[in-house]
Write a structure and sequence with these properties.
Layout lengths: L1 H15 L4 H9 L5 H8 L6 E3 L22 E8 L2 E8 L10 H17 L3 E7 L8 H17 L5 E10 L1 H7 L3 E5 L4 E3 L3 H8 L5 H5 L1 H7 L5 E3 L2 H12 L40 H8 L6 E3 L7 E8 L2 E8 L10 H16 L4 E7 L6 H5 L2 H14 L4 E10 H6 L9 E4 L4 E3 L3 H8 L5 H15 L3 H5 L5 E2 L5 H12 L17
Parallel strand pairs: 3-4, 4-5, 5-6, 5-7, 6-8, 11-12, 12-13, 13-14, 13-15, 14-16
Antiparallel strand pairs: 1-2, 2-3, 9-10, 10-11
Helix pairs in contact: 4-5, 5-6, 12-14, 16-17
The structure holds hexanoyl-coenzyme A (HXC).
């Protein structure tokens, strides 16, 4: 018996070496951890239970039968993060560049199927050269099997992708269908086709970094959510992040003990809004002063900065926060910000995470660039997302809520549960000057000035909306946290259902 156990240990040790010490050293030389080292950082110590360690590829072409490596380039299994169950796959770049074979795909599918059955998040650590070239269509089929499961799992269990190496071809589409993507700077790339193909087809000369590096995708394209300095930072952030999420759509949001009193007053918020309506202020200040202990996990901080999205907690329970940011483009809604916040709102709704919306929005960004690129359809995404959401929705208008953007930002009319305004709120069709120049076109400058003042006095406040019941209460800024906390307590058992349908048809 002893000998048999020793043989098993030897087999395991061989499997753990993946593509061999030389390739592990090369991985380390690039500043990257190996697939197993990453899992060790991600999961609670000793909690990882590996599956399918001895799975081998079944390819008979291109001399592949002589190159069989147990595990076939991906480490899969389950473990815990702060005691909560998660399923993980971690691609091993030392084995055929982490490329995806039929069997490699089957391993990923197996843990996705199980995660879906038991209701636990799936975390993918991606480091892959794409489809296993030697396998041809078998590998493409494998990708499609993974894609199919990404779609079935969407809205059922949270899916988080960490991009930790080159991800080309099929390797980008699975992450693209997961809920969140974290990337590592200088060592991770995502592109459908790499720089060489780009050069051949379009004659453009571009580096990997420019085409699909972490900075590109977290600033320009918005494909990824957050960029981290190295593997360890990204994996630790993933641990923190998973703590905000429910394990599945069948489970409640996690609850964490907090010492932060629900009724903490923040006197400094009473002076957050500058005297001059055109002067910006940082909406992060309001967010941090509202959530428990100032902890806010921001997503896409470097993309479409005119809207802020992320998770915080109130009384220990997760909330999703969406907030216009007056510091960027005056907080206007545009194509990118609508897409960014729309998807976030839908995630929160799918997983029963209440949405807190802080509003200071002068409207949609005007201009040909926006119109020709489809702001109508993209802006409608956010409108649609808020309107279909049935989770508790609490809205606080701090300053401007103009035009269609007033409607969009979780207004009472889109089934906002509690719609608060600060006394500094201005709720109107548009800013006073613009409004007067339209309805009093051709009048003298003196008359325009007088009418502007009149318009401001009439509409640059929350009371007209409050008199119609569109605003439930005008609250003191310092009491914002308390109001939200009490609102969330009362809304905890909220029940609201949309009419039955196969699915809706959100303007994609
Ligand atoms: C088989 C692969 C591979 C692949 C890399 N390798 N990619 N083996 N299939 N797709 C192997 C290499 O042969 C090498 O083996 C080892 O992995 C490391 O690769 P290197 O090229 O030495 O590493 P590096 O210089 O870091 O470059 C990494 C890379 C490059 C950028 C990922 O390997 C590359 O461009 N690979 C091909 C990418 C690609 O075109 N994939 C197919 C996409 S099409 P040894 O034995 O030397 O260690 C696709 C279709 C799916 O995915 C579409 C679904 C919608």
């Amino acid at each position: 018996m002893q000998a048999i156990v020793e043989q098993l240990e030897a087999k395991r040790s061989a499997a753990r070496l993946g593509g061999g010490q030389k390739r592990i050293d090369a991985q380390h030389a690039k500043g990257k951890l190996t697939a197993r080292e990453r899992i060790d950082v991600l999961l609670d110590e000793g909690s990882f239970e590996e599956l399918d360690m001895y799975v081998e590829h079944n390819c008979v072409d291109f001399g592949m039968p002589e190159q069989v490596i147990p595990g076939d380039g991906v480490v899969t299994g389950s473990g815990t993060i702060n005691g909560r169950l998660v399923y993980v796959f971690s691609q091993d770049f030392t084995v055929f560049g982490g490329s995806l074979s039929e069997r490699h795909a089957q391993k990923i599918c197996k843990i996705m199927d199980t995660a879906l059955k038991v209701g636990a998040p799936v975390i993918g650590l991606n480091d892959s050269g794409g489809a296993r070239i030697q396998e041809g269509v078998a590998s493409l089929g494998g990708y499609a099997e993974v894609f199919q499961r990404n779609v079935l799992a969407s809205g059922v269990v949270p899916q988080l992708s960490l991009i930790m190496g080159p991800c080309a071809g099929g390797a980008v589409y699975s992450p693209a269908m997961t809920d969140f993507i974290f990337m590592v700077k200088d060592s991770s790339y995502m592109f459908v086709t790499g720089p060489d193909v780009v050069k051949t087809v379009t004659n453009e000369v571009v580096t990997q970094e420019e085409l699909g590096g972490a900075v590109t995708h977290t600033t320009k394209s918005g494909v990824a959510d957050v960029a981290f300095e190295n593997d360890i930072e990204a994996l630790w952030a993933a641990r923190t992040f998973i703590d905000y999420l429910p394990l599945s759509n069948r489970e409640d949001v996690p609850e964490r003990p907090t010492a932060d009193p629900y009724d903490r007053f923040e006197e400094s918020l009473d002076t957050l809004i500058p005297a001059n309506a055109n002067q910006p202020y940082d909406m992060h200040e309001l967010i941090r002063k509202t959530v428990d202990e100032g902890d806010f996990f921001e997503l896409q901080p470097a993309h479409a900065g005119n809207i802020i999205i992320g998770f915080g907690r109130i009384e220990g329970r997760t909330v999703g926060i969406v907030a216009n940011q007056p510091m960027v483009l005056a907080g206007c809604l545009d194509i990118n910000s609508s897409k960014k916040a729309g998807r976030f709102v839908r995630f929160c709704d799918a997983f029963d995470i209440p949405i807190i919306t802080f509003v200071d929005v002068p409207g949609f960004l005007p201009g040909t660039q926006q119109e020709l690129n489809g702001i109508i359809k993209h802006g409608a995404k956010l409108l649609f997302a808020y309107a279909e959401a049935t989770v508790p929705k609490i809205t606080v208008i701090t300053r401007k809520a103009y035009g269609g953007a007033y409607d969009v930002m979780a207004s009472k009319h889109l089934r906002g549960d509690l719609n608060y305004a600060w006394p500094t709120a201005e709720i109107a069709v548009m800013g006073a000057k613009g409004a007067v120049e339209i309805i009093f076109r051709g009048k003298t400058p003196e008359e325009i000035a007088a009418r502007t003042k009149e318009y401001e006095e009439r509409f640059a406040n929350p009371f007209v909306a409050a008199s119609k019941g569109f605003i439930d209460e005008v609250i003191a800024p310092h009491s914002t946290r308390k109001r939200i906390a009490l609102g969330l307590r009362k809304l905890r058992n909220k029940q609201l259902e949309n009419p039955w349908k196969k699915h809706d048809n959100i303007p994609l």
